[in-house]
Amino acid sequence: MPRDLAALARFLARTPFFGGLDELGLRRVVEMTREREVAAGATVFREVDQGSPMYVVESGELMAVRNVGSERAVRLIPLAAGDFFGETTLIEMQPRPFSVTVERDARILELTNADLYRLYREDVKSYVLVLQNINRELCRRLRRASVRITAYAAEAGDEVTQIRETQPELLPVKRSP
């Protein structure tokens, strides 16, 4: 079945990452995406996998899961149409922080860091807007996580829980003799 590019552009325009793009920018992004049909029970990627694609859920239901032990997993984020996941590897090039499994047959749209680089070369204004949207969404997630951590600490009576940035490893200073 051929892709309805106009419908896909309208769908992406309503998502947090691609909202605000003009018609040309949306068309470029739509042409870069690859559709994947994923059956219930499948795993899109696993925690600690390396990878660059991010995904937008077009239909279906998925779940982000994080392992906290050899046989115990925590369900983190339910994902449905319009949601996105995997964007952190586009920015930090680190292993996946969680796994994503399919709970109900899904259609997902894949976009890689090479696609984003192509967008940068072809349409820097759209590229900047997409990066701003990604950063805005990451800040929202961080804010929600902070609220949850604070609530859990308060519930546990933990007065010493601290949220602080991890410091980058400092390189030794070379001194002249």
Write structural notes for this entry:
- With 177 residues, this protein is of the alpha+beta class.
- The chain has one domain: Jelly Rolls (Sandwich), CATH 2.60.120.
- Strands 1, 2, 3, 4, 5 and 6 form a six-stranded antiparallel sheet that branches.
- Strand 3 and strand 4 form a beta hairpin.
Q: Return Rg in Å.
A: 19 Å
CATH topology: Jelly Rolls
The biggest beta sheet is recorded as:
6 strands, antiparallel
CATH superfamily: Jelly Rolls
Notable features of this structure?
single chain, 177 residues, alpha+beta, Jelly Rolls, 6-stranded antiparallel sheet, 5 helices, 25% strand
Topology (elements, then pairings):
Layout: H1 5-13, H2 23-32, E1 34-38, E2 43-45, E3 54-67, E4 73-79, E5 84-85, H3 88-92, E6 99-111, H4 113-122, H5 124-155
Antiparallel strand pairs: 1-6, 2-6, 3-4, 3-5, 3-6
